[in-house]
Amino acid sequence: MGRVGRTPQIGISVLIVLLVLFGIGWKSLIAAAMITSMFVWLQKRSDPKAGSEFSRTPLTSLQKTVIPELSQQLDISYNDSHQSINQITSLFVSLSELVKQRNALGSEGHGHEIEQLELKMNAAYKELMELLQHGDRNLQRQAGVIEGLALINKQLGLLEQEGADWDEAWVMNELVKIKSRTEHAMSEKSAASAQDEGVTYF
């Protein structure tokens, strides 16, 4: 039988006890109502399956909602970093070959070939700089995840030390704020790097 189904039985039992002890009167009725309400309130606070976000256990909240959100952000950062590393490695190999070809031509003659090689080298350097800036944005995303973990750790500490309620909605809202702030900083860096286009490295 659920908590709601037990409430009338509890109320009737408390009322009977009070009537036997103190007789029929409005004070007995009020006392019975107050005791029943207090009992139900305590049951709600101690019930980990209650639907309220405040009564949801921190472990369940972390497992089903909070950790998956942070894990998704780290997964995106990892995939981007992995792709960037592969591209940077490929660019270094290409640049090495271009430099060898350029040095083999010497400083005299082959003007058109030298010009074409230097254009390719400039393009490769530009792409390399963009990838390095992309890596910096990944670091900012990871810093946001670290900030989120620190926030969660602080809330768990308050829960243990002060007996505060675990408010999943508040925690998720703060994580969204951190993510938005991080993405805003990333977009600002992207806009700043766009102004560096056209830079010649030779």
* Biggest sheet statistics: none
Helix content: over 70%
Overall number of structural domains: 2
- Secondary structure tally, helices: 5
> Structural class per helix/strand content?
mainly alpha
Mean pLDDT level = 75
Give the quaternary arrangement of the chains. Answer: single chain
What is the molecular shape? rod-shaped
Radius of gyration: 33 Å
Low-confidence stretches: 1-5, 48-55, 198-202
Task: List the helices and strands in order.
Answer: HHHHH
Could you describe the 3D structure shown?
The protein is mostly helical and 202 residues long. It folds into 2 domains: 3-46, no CATH class; 58-194. The chain is 83% helix and 0% strand. It contains 5 helices and no strands. The radius of gyration is 33 Å and the shape is rod-shaped. Mean pLDDT is 75; it is low at 1-5, 48-55 and 198-202.
